[in-house]
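Entry 12.
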Amino acid sequence: MNIKQLHYFYELAQHRHFAKAAKACFITQPTLSASITSLEKSLGTELVVRNSQFVALTQAGEIVLRHAERMLQEQDAMHQELSLFGGELSGTLRIGMVPQSSIDIMPLLKGFNEAYPRVGLRLSVMTHETLLEQLDLHQIDLGLGFDELLTDHQRRNLAVQQPHPNPMALLGPLPGHDERPQDEPLQLADLQGIPLILPSSTMQFRRYFDEAAARQQLSFRVVLETDSLFHLANGVSHGLGCAVVSASIAATALRLFQLPWRPLADAAAGTTAFITRKHSVTPAIRAFLALPLI
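Predicted 3D structure (tokens):
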């Protein structure tokens, strides 16, 4: 068994297709198949269920995949450490984040890129549950998720950095409130009867909103639910309704799309923070967390 075989196996597990995995590895499909077969022989067990094509990973394959992900991540960390001897950090930093956070990550990414131009950045948007799962599986290096949702077990294995309250805001002009100052907070009760655009019920941000509404026994007129922040803001700009978003997203929408917003005084989406594993912290992770929040 060698690291190249594990890399080929990892790509096959990600793509679930021999030809696509071979293309991702820049090798031929017969070479990939031969490598997987050789890996199985060295481990003494089948890793992949296949006929003329990929079917699934075996139970042993799932176990090998978990270890392969960690080993490949450790290899990347080693290369990052060694790159410092050349005077400039290199490698890849993989970040996962929930759709709505109190931290505007783009200025941080820009600052990191300017300081470490040889480190590639990969940013994925996902649910909080998926973020924690991918941290555990070493599929991402750093997460931006909800602090208070971590279990005691997760807190023993994960480190929370730079927690920030995540207040909510109403994005878009609210009928009948134009005479009030733009920074004057609204109450959830002020939103009753107006068309609202909300995140989908599968999103943790929406659950916080629904919990706040339930505490006050309020109901709302929802005209659109979406997982996409772009379509949420686009719906507001087209006059479909007002959207409930994090205050950070609202401030960004004002800057980019000139959409007005007002803070919500009695609703918040918990606390968002950067979350990392307590072990396998690469130089790129440490460098990113050392950046001042903007």
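Annotation: Residues 167-268 form a domain with the D-Maltodextrin-Binding Protein; domain 2 fold (CATH 3.40.190.290). The beta strands are 48-50, 54-57, 91-97, 119-125, 142-146, 158-171, 195-199, 221-226, 242-246, 261-277.
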